[in-house]
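Minutes, project check-in

Agenda point 3 was the complex the collaborators sent over. CS summarized: two entities, 969 residues total, and the question is how they sit relative to each other. Sequences were read into the notes so everyone works from the same version.
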Amino acid sequence: MSTSQITPDIVAAHQLSPDEYQKILSLLGREPSLTELGIFSVMWSEHCSYKSTRVHLKKLPTESAHVLQGPGENAGIIDIGDGIAIAFKIESHNHPSFIEPFQGAATGVGGILRDIFTMGARPIAVMDSIRFGRLDDPETGARNRRILEGVVSGIAHYGNCFGVPTVGGECVFEKSYEGNPLVNVFALGVFKHNEVFYGKAEGVGNPVIYVGAKTGRDGIHGASMASAEFTEESKQKRPNVQVGDPFMEKLLLEACLEAMKTGAIVGIQDMGAAGLTSSTCEMGSRAGTGVEIDLAQVPQREVGMTPYEMMLSESQERMLLVAAKGRESEVLNVFKKWGLDATQIGVVTNDGMLRVKNHGVVFAEIPNRALADEAPKYNRPYTKPLRTAPLEGAAPASKDLTADLKALLSSGDLCSKRWIWEQYDYQVRTNTLAGPGAEAAIVRIKGTDTSVAMSLDGNGRYCALDPREGTKLIVAECCRNLSTVGALPIATTNNLNFGNPERPEIMAQIVESIEGLAEVCKFFEVPVTGGNVSLYNETLGTPIVPTPVVGIVGTLPTQLPVPLHFHKAGLPVILLGGLGAPSASEMGGTQYTKVIQDSLWGTPPKLDMEYEKRVQTTIRELVRAGAVASAHDLGEGGLALAIAECSFGHAAIGADIRLDSDLPKELLLFHEGPSRILVTTENPENVLAAAQRNSIQVVAIGVTLEARVTIRNRNETLIDSPVEQLKGLWAHALEHLLQNPVLV
Amino acid sequence: MKIGIVVFPGSNCDHDAWYAVSQNLQQQAEFVWHESASLGNLDAVILPGGFSYGDYLRCGAIAKFSPVMAAVKRFAAEGGLVLGVCNGFQVLTEAGLLPGALVRNDNLKFVCRPVELEVATTNSPFTHEAKKGQRLIIPIAHGEGCYVAQERVLDELEDTDRVALRYIDNPNGSLRNIAGVLNEERNVMGMMPHPERVADPLMGGTDGLLILQSLAHAGAVSSRS
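CS then shared the predicted structure for the full assembly.
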């Protein structure tokens, strides 16, 4: 073993604290080599070890009758009947996407796809949640636009070439993200129950095989970069961002799935963060075995790489697998057919050690468990969640409500995102029953009568006001989206994007959000089967608003989806759940307040979970029975925005809405109270009866109308506009923001 | 009727074509690996969409050297029916089985969207079940779908009635709105839109089935021995 002089400076440069270094010394019983220090630094990074959140993540519900595999594996697995299962997960690539938007986002897609197919599932859907600074910001707008364009083309490049449809997602603009954009990618795959593979290095003596792309110097220390705040020097870290090759990944997918069918693969894991390091020690740790490799056997793209560099490289499109001894050739032949490198680099041992040699010389020798399971775990101090928004704000006093609606429809958050999603192939694999722009994405599972619906959502504004209640609202919204297309929500994945957990007021946001998530997921029976935590989302000491992003999946019988749009004039328009009774402070977090008043204050909307569940049960019953002609839930922008969106179908059918309410008109139109769904129907009595059966409010608010949207309250006309005018603004706003940014 | 679907490394609409042929069209479908030197006893062959060999260099530029393309050329020369969709169209132009080339979309972006097409000729095994001038809605999904050729080639295509499909609202800058063309013998067609994506009512339309049905029925009556 090479002797090294590990100075405190070297330890600090690896983002290990003096206490953590002491723990390494005691676990090893000696001073680590530089290679070993590098290995510890990535495995014990926040990104890989969840050291600040593990104690709290334990509070999440993880089990139900549907869950086949909860957290801890590469992805969660859910039974959807007929012997079929789905694997799904979300992963962030925030830091790389800021430094190099195209490759950062592309490799984010690549990483999560590998998490799915390493388990044996074929990826059939991707969704993206992306957040940037404001496109029209006078100072940072140009950079924000460039980052958006880079991220979108990176996602398109990778997903389109790989051949997985990007079926949905969300895109939000907020000042808070301008120095720290968020790129969270969700992927879902499908397989049979008996096709599941795990990342376990079982069977002493079995060969350890490296497959896929060659190892280079790219991405060294990516995991620890993702675990630090951005500073002026971060821009120097460009070489830390990996470069993706979706064609290689497509070959890897086909080869892995084909090799799995041979029955000669014992365990398999992708090389994600910290590449060779995480795959070797995690596979060994899960199986209770040791793994010994010789780096001289690793296919290399560059000459003269040190063991340190090879162990920390994050070169993309690589997998590590363990084959049954004696059956190596069956596996190797498949990879040869697909033109991929596949080489035995080591063997499973019985001593529980990760032993890394280079040309026979030992460079690292660490108990696997020390790396994977003995990582530091912190119960970091927390106080009250950081909150900068005031509790009170100016009550809205609109001069022109139609103009306000037009401003909302033209805003970055609420306008059509077609410019983005048309760059994604959302149809490949011919399963997409409902794609981008729909209430929830729906993909059918061929060979069954079941489809999977999915929704991805976040709301940094609500969470800035109250991380606990905000998180609950996000989950309620996702479940409502699924219920509105007739699906039963069954499981959750989540991506927790927060600032520096070493600040007690940020840690408090994290704890509140996780506890809110636990409560709401338990209530809606959507256990959390996996996810990702992205911390240190700060730039020069300013944290992002707390941004948990939630992805929920559900199932429904395969059928033509219920439309979101009004498609026929003369149909009754009914609001399930009622008009709501918001207090004035609940306006402070709405899109109305953001767009019209450029402020944030007050409290998020109130959520009554029992009531929400009954509303969702009602709509699910109605949609499954074919009793509604269209259905759309109320979300950001409230009632007025939902009515406008419903009128943006090909037929351009609007509505004549007549309300009878004591609410101030701005609240009536734009409050964002949950538990409300707008439907049209040929048979209003069925809808009323279902609402009554489930004890929820229901109001007949008007009738669909050709080409015009009018909303009156009693005798006052609040909104009146031709559909085409509203639709034109909504449809072209994003292109307009990108091409002719208005400087305010 | 047995229809082969060529699988290049990087093909990603091969399964979709297989599903449309076997499930929606109810014909026999069979994958053909890119290293196959022969097509066996196929009645027709489809070159599906995707990114063959990663589309490095140029779309379709590497695929044309694959062993299977030599077999496809022989098959076409003997009168066999060959349909290239999207990347398959690009491969056919690179391989010289169809004139012209597909270059980057005029707005430089990948675009996925249903587009309206006009059937420009029904005198082909791929469109004979449509009516001339019939409007079809079939999705496109490509970054390099802008059809270009020399003026005299375009004139010749039109003079010989070999433009099969045209865009109503040109999405990519294709010259003369060309979405699909035929070879001189009319047994090879390339088209950028994806008929296999609208072969099932659940997918929001069945206009693509018209192309596939034309192919199946023409293949069944063709006298190729």
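Noted in discussion: Chain B has a mean pLDDT of 95.
Follow-up: revisit at the next meeting once the mutant set is ready.
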